[in-house]
């Protein structure tokens, strides 16, 4: 809220090529000049802003609330050859800059070339129109004028003007003009949700049918059992998934890694759910970096979820090295994210980009890992081991594993894993397009209700698909269902990453080492995290299914 004639700050943020959204540099890395006003009220940077490369610098322009400024020169650029070359390079690469007034973003273009590409022009006059409602700023528009040809060894005067106008826009609705309802609420978006719902109904029907048929057949067989003689019983009783009842609850191979992955997947699911709910209630897009700050905070706070599910599963599988499991579970995702960020940071530093993460921010993130995530994970692990760490399987595990019979090629775990991710990917890939566009292009994602629906659909489809895959596997008398159920759901990540290649080459005009490594690096992190989450959801659903069918079977 402003008083009349109170100082209004125009912040200069970053400048960079239009097609490479993440390749941004400090505004004054181009040889722009600064206004005469020097003193300013202090500005605090949040963790989210530091990680996203927000570099706010004071423009030096003197703007006061409701005080019009007639066109006035605020500084002069002494254009030598070096400065001209910098501006020409920026104009050739379609550089544009971002500014903020009262947290409202404004974008402007640096300059333009003539049709032949021989002469280059710089926009020198910033015409600001600011809308106010009561004592608040609700609208900002920038018009770039004053086209001046870039000629070496000349002086270029930079000027600005400010016009204040009364506006009917409410303060709460001031971000609405940045949203794009025609893009996000397009008919295709609605159609894709409807399409996914149809898939859900079909899959739930299929799983119910499998459950009903197998269990009904079993009960029917058992009711006949009394009337059978020994010969019939020896010939006809044991077949299919019932054969492996003595091995189905055998611990998975590599239980330490497996339980760490399941714990991490459960935590990612909890984070996704909470962040989407928060984003639906609060408009997180109205504040710079608030989405990232929220996600980091929620991830740290949900660490006990990781410890609980990972620790209890490891205990049930008879694991002894629980402290090692806890460390791996706690640092699996942070190490993956920080490792990728560290690699990309080297390229950002080489480019002098604003995306280079400051050392202080790195230390802050490491402190969160060691002093928040690790202790909370320890609490979750201890709770998990003590509350649900006892193996209470419905069937006894045989001392000697039974040999796995040969089966057709399409029943092999490797084939099931590759095919398992197709349907979950099919249910989310339209939403992926909207999410990618909001992250890699200039759209603000705000339809979190859609995202919530898609998350629910993804969970149901994933669970149904892994249950069907596991049923076929067990029917082929193969009891290695734990890793198969996890990986068949996690293979969704492979399809998402393949789709990201298609998106890069056909939907964007990105170029250069920095933007390309940034894109594929963070897409790999996103796909892996999604895969671990889907895998954990698939395993949890399948585990309940397997327990259910073997509980209802009478075993001699």
From TrEMBL:
It is found in: Membrane. The keyword Transmembrane helix applies. Its main location: membrane. It comes from the Eukaryota. It is a multi-pass membrane protein. Keywords: Membrane, Signal, Transmembrane, Transmembrane helix. The chain crosses the membrane at residues 190-212, 256-281, 293-315, 327-351, 357-379, 414-436, 448-474, 486-506, 518-540. It holds the Pfam family EMP70. GO terms for cellular component: membrane. One of its GO terms (biological process) is protein localization to membrane. PANTHER family: TRANSMEMBRANE 9 SUPERFAMILY MEMBER 3, TRANSMEMBRANE 9 SUPERFAMILY PROTEIN. Belongs to the nonaspanin (TM9SF) (TC 9.A.2) family. This is Transmembrane 9 superfamily member. The lineage of its organism: Eukaryota, Metazoa, Chordata, Craniata, Vertebrata.
